[in-house]
Fold each of these.
Amino acid sequence: MSLSGKTAIITGSNSGIGLGIAWELARAGANVVLNSFTDNEEDHALAREISAETGTSARYIKADMSKGDECRMLIEQAGACDILVNNAGIQHVAAIDEFPTEKWDAIIAINLTSSFHTTAAALPMMRKAGWGRVVNIASAHGLTASPYKSAYVAAKHGIVGMTKTVALETAQEPITCNAICPGYVLTPLVESQIPDTMKEYDMDRETVIKEVMLQRQPSKEFATVEQLGGTCVFLCSDAAAQITGTTISVDGGWTAL
Ligand code: NAD
């Protein structure tokens, strides 16, 4: 599978799943645009490392996905967008009657509304190029729920709905739109939830991982960022040209329960 000559923009890709996807798309030949809201030397170094190792062109563009105008600016500044991976996301865990309004607003803005803006800005470029792939990184929480994650579950169900709508609006064009629904992946986002969960359940780290986090993941293994990158590359392949408006779970059997 060669994505040579294609430009892929991956939002929220200076760590975790986004970075893993950027690596796999670059290994498949795509020129990748990394993004986050910071502008550190390390962010640009990640892009240089990908370029050096894959021989493709990689760039880093700072844009805050909580702000609509910056979402659109990211796509415009990239200058081309054949593959759009809407991945940026944050989490906050609290009962709904104690959920801070600013956390609710931030989760909806970054995990859902940013994809509206990036997709709206990218589709005209895909139409002009005569080819496009939109891949939304949803979650098992786009298909099922857990307590204390109201904003996250609402945003992820929302992105699954938007995926279907974008697929219908582009159904007769060489453009597809799908969502990948990962189960637990050991990234900084998940790592940050471990200390609170250890306190809440009075458990050690290993027990939290096995009995709380992976409790609903029948494989009892984390999915990996490489597996998610590989799924994304598949969705960009010709074999996936008629796959649109659907979800692919990479969750060790979670949603089969
Ligand atoms: P992570 O914290 O490692 O990465 C999140 C990325 O989003 C980072 O690059 C961060 O800089 C970026 N980001 C955060 N706020 C941003 C903003 N305002 N503007 C631009 N970028 C911003 O987390 P991750 O686990 O890699 O999560 C990536 C995506 O995968 C998220 O959408 C998350 O909901 C989803 N997901 C993760 C898991 C998991 O178990 N890790 C499971 C299902 C879905």
Note: Residues 176 and 243 are 7 Å apart (CA to CA).
Amino acid sequence: MNTAPKPRVLVARQVFDEVIEKLAGHFELQYNQADAVWTQDELIARLQGMDGAFVTGTEAIDRRLLDACPQLRAVCTMAVGYNNIDLAACTERGVLVSNAPDVLTETTADFGFALMMATARRITESEHFLRAGRWTRWGHDMFAGADVHGATLGVLGMGRIGQAIARRGALGFGMSVLYHNRSRLDPAVEAKLGARYVDKATLLRESDHLVLVLPYSPASHHAIGAAELALMKPTATLTNVARGGIVDDAALAEALRERRIAAAGLDVFEGEPAVHPALLQLPNVVLTPHIASASLPTRLAMAQLAADNLIAALGQGPHAGRPPTALNLQVLGAR
Ligand code: 8YV
């Protein structure tokens, strides 16, 4: 019988009960099923003595936290984006980090496409009008928006989710697809997606519907600001399902107010859950609370993947030592 003490793990946010049960089979577990809001100091206090942390996109795993929790060996997030985790600092300290790619690609692409369509066809704006009792008669141009089918779709950031959105546009809606990315895709992949690589300025100038799907980093901070918005067509829409901070929200609100672009669909915001007050006042923006990956099966798959990573990273289960989606697997070899 194995009498070694179980590793200790903290689950920072509320998560599916079946995921808690799975983790409890391998770890001495502390969790937060009440989804209490913890300050950074409280998170640090609760991580004392913990070997692992199950986190989401909302906890900051920074140098101060890592220095205060020297026993931490694994941080596993149920998000694909990990800009809230200082990966370099974790690697320096031998802390394994994993994210949750792939399982959310199609769900997030569905939502990106839906948000782009709602923006182009003014769905929420017209619903508010109807609910307010203002629909008294039909009008020839009432809530007339932009077409999606046959239009030019621009994708900034052509990773897994960007490609899934491009596929929807090209194959489902007969769109011409342009993209810009740090690196160009293989020509065979471009041909399959029907996507053409262009420089960023061309993408901004030629897109009817521009969708942002790039990761956040200091390099992508305000990748869309006043200068970029000025290059876009006055009839164009902008959709952001990537991260807050990629768009300069103040500059966007100004461009929307002055109708320098037609409309925007935003699922992510600078400093969320706060939303720039100017955006809240505008009719030509569709706003959603960071839910692009939020289908129930996908959120469960994301959480299960984070749990599987944590179990394997802390030497438990059938895949001990082989976390499926580690970002710095080298730290395990160095232990
Ligand atoms: C998550 C996300 O909902 O995966 C990501 O990067 O932005 C979202 O899918 C959120 O971050 C989960 O913590």
Note: The pocket of 2-keto-D-gluconic acid is lined by residues 56-57, 78-81, 104, 293 (CB under 6 Å).
Amino acid sequence: MHRRELLRLLGVSPLAALAGSAGLIESAHAQETPDVELELTAAPAEVPILAGPPTKLWRYSARVVRGPASTVQPLEGSYLGPALRFTRGQRVRVRFRNQLPEPSIVHWHGLDVPEKADGHPRLAVQSGAEYVYDFQVVNRAGMSWYHPHPHMRTAWQAYHGMAGPIFITDPEEAALGLPSGDGELIFALQDRRFDAANQFVYARSGQGGMGRGGMGGGMMGRMDVMNGWLGDRMLVSGRIQPTVDVDRRTYRVRFLNGSNARIYKLAWSHQAPFTIIGNDGGLFGAPRTQRFLTLAPGQRADVLLDLSDVAAGTDVQLQSAAYPADAVGHAGMMEQAVPVPYGAPLALATLRVSSRRGPRFTPPATLSADTFRPATSAPVRRVPLTFRQMNWFIDGRTFEMDAVAPEETVVAGSTHIWEFANQPGGMGMAMAHPMHLHGRHFRVLSRTGAEGNPLREGIHDQGWTDTVLVLPGETVRVQVTFSEYPGLFLYHCHNLEHEDMGMMRNFRIANR
Ligand code: C2O
Ligand code: CU
Ligand code: CU
């Protein structure tokens, strides 16, 4: 009997049973009519970003074939893919059409989906081909995102425009009545370099990722990718340092660091602290306030910004505060010859406060039920992050398409502690690595070894996350309960240049 039918007979709503039984439900749902059916196309486009000629880029567009029209929300004036809005429990089918001139595949960063729907690079489809995703939205409310994941081309494709946000809602979140509609701002942070003709400039542009074209870019090209590619123009949701007209009210700001490599230490110019209500894995148990918010590539933050008491006419700037570049570390003996290095102070966006008033929202003391329990007897795996011979390694290994080591094999639904140990290599070379696990969100148990790092004061280890920043010299312990979906999944550094260089590995979830 199908799990779904069984649950119906028992009078259990499939949604209520999701947390523990996602894998069983999935096997039954593929044949059923999806609640939402989308067509997602990746294709070249030209979008005006700077004054003058438009920028040639690659982008996602989407169309609702079945289900609520509100599932697809284009971001106005942005090259980013549309926001996709799902409700927990929905069965989703996405027909991905690759109209790019090279292979690609879509990954739903943050979503707990079956192996076939996860966008592993070995599933990449050729130019002109299609790929159909079937999955159920088992995640709780929160912000995720989608981006390409083809072998050694993720960084290039993402840099050239391929990314979009995903928002999931559920009854727990809806009951809070958080600011929505005009009260919700989507801030996807990216940096880019442009040439004189307004076209994107990327490391060894057009030659493919590291390894494909060898050392074609010469020593400096290699240095650029080892450090991660940094732009000198800051974009928020596809617009260069935008000015946004806002009212005197509370906003919910949904942050995504969609940059290839840059790490932001966010601050508001009017000195107000961030009221953080959630991150990668959804709402916190309780709100948290802090002056700075460190956001590494791949990470999201859910923030309340109350402008009710800010005088009309004020400009509130979203900034990245200055920090010394060696807080991120470096991979080379040479100073990084980039126009805007790590840690440079940045102006990202300006919120221009009008005289209009809108609703003030004060978050309740309890935002969500926190289900986290520290495991007492989970196996501990030490995962060294190292540098040697001009490359980055995870536990001494580099990416191999199908390979999995014994310590990278786990049983469905089992709980493990992984300890990412960022170990300085020869001549103290180490860099901050945002380590990401596909599928389930995890909890940070501890971090040691980088107490004085200036990025630390913007880091919080509250809530569920899928991407954790591991600073140079730091050891970060996380507790993860792996998905119920069996198969081959990825974990990697979300500095996309590091990922494409091979700082990525498979893990395999075996059936119970
Ligand atoms: Cu954004 Cu493999 O991830
Ligand atoms: Cu991911
Ligand atoms: Cu890295």
Note: The chain has a mean pLDDT of 91.
Amino acid sequence: MRTILIVEDNPMNMELARDVLEANGYCVREAASAGEALQALQESLPDLILMDIQLPGLDGLELTRTLKQDADTKDIIVVAMTAHAMKGDRERILEAGCSGYIAKPIDTRALSREVARLLPAGKAAAHPGSL
Ligand code: MN
């Protein structure tokens, strides 16, 4: 089963993203900060990270840059989530190493579409009978 790590400090956004991704057949793990994300990555590597840009402390773009410099984590697909959909932000996000991004407030269809585009077969990869 494909695994997605959601890095998001807002509990409502976390719940929404989790519900959408689980409904699409992905296994979801959660981190509320960059520190929690790094800890989760020590345990196991997800197929994709859904990365909030606005995080307390180390922000999502800084964390993405850090991950892209590490041989162990550089190949993990990162999708940014940002409330700042201003001109220049797209370039900043892609330059940091993200493969895509979605705007906030989260549009559940846009989230499903973007994740499926970058990480196909969430449902197909699920094992019958697994949690
Ligand atoms: Mn945030």
Note: The domain at 3-118 is CATH 3.40.50.2300 (Rossmann fold).
